[in-house]
Design a protein that fits this description.
This is Peptidoglycan DD-metalloendopeptidase family protein. About 20% of the residues lie in helices and about 20% in strands. It is α+β, with helices and mostly antiparallel strands. The structure holds zinc ion (ZN).
Length: about 240
């Protein structure tokens, strides 16, 4: 059942959210600014765009239908121009090209899921699990997982379990992993939350471009329904990588 799966994911996300409130870890906003050379000067603090619907102080009860939950979304590149194509090779995802060091921010409030701080990729073996280089994934309050990779650096304080608001800096645009030499960009993937290291799902199962278009225009388009449909269609066979592995 699509709706049941969606609600389950939402409940899991909300549970993680509430657990996080009991002993809140340091947030990126309170952490020291990154000391990396490619941090754009003049923007040491992550942007915060609190809204009543996404307030951490008053999470909404689980709605009867997850698509109707009001969630604020942010375009995942902040402070720099980002360009992207509607299509991606091999599977649904979007490569967002922006200058090296530009801020990659969380598109939604949620909890950091997985973080990769070491670039293990090499061209000789081109292992699928390593192609993302340095990366961060966040499970949003909408129950959807968002993934950005090829980062030059993961932002200070970003680690699994940390609660973030939409617009909080997760890392910096780079070309780690298989993006080496292709020009700095963030590979952006939208998926349902899955087991750790199930990278073939994490890299993307739904085309993000229509949602990026909306978020950039200030509209709160939600991928919840599209992800639920993808999970219904692809979930049963997602236990192993079947394409571009
Ligand atoms: Zn890509």
């Amino acid at each position: 059942m699509v709706v049941v799966a969606g609600v389950t994911g939402l409940v899991v996300a909300l549970s993680a959210w509430q657990e996080g409130r009991e002993s809140p870890p340091p947030t990126p906003a309170s952490a020291a600014p990154e000391a990396t050379p490619d941090t754009p000067s003049g923007r040491p603090e992550p942007r915060r765009t609190p809204s009543p619907s996404a307030s951490a102080e008053a999470p909404e009860p689980a709605p009867s239908h997850p698509v109707r939950k009001k969630v604020s979304y942010a375009f995942p590149i902040e402070g720099c121009a980002g360009s992207y194509a509607a299509e991606h090779h091999n599977y649904p995802a979007t490569d967002i090209f922006a200058a090296q060091g530009c801020a990659f921010v969380s598109p939604v409030a949620g909890v950091v899921d997985e973080v990769g701080t070491v670039d293990r990729w090499s061209a000789s073996d081109n292992r699928g699990a390593d192609r993302g280089g340095k990366f961060v994934s966040v499970v949003g309050v909408d129950g959807v997982r968002y993934y950005g990779s090829h980062l030059s650096v993961v932002a200070s304080g970003i680690r699994p379990g940390v609660r973030v608001q939409d617009g909080v800096r997760l890392g910096s645009v780079g070309e780690t992993g298989s993006a080496r030499g292709t020009g700095p960009h963030v590979h952006f993937g939208i998926s349902w939350p899955g087991p750790p290291d199930q990278w073939w799902v994490r890299r993307g199962v739904v085309a993000p471009a229509p949602f990026l278009d909306a978020w950039r225009a200030g509209r709160n388009a939600s991928p919840v329904a599209a992800v639920a449909e993808a999970e219904r269609r692809l979930g049963p066979q997602s236990g192993e990588c079947r394409q571009y592995c």
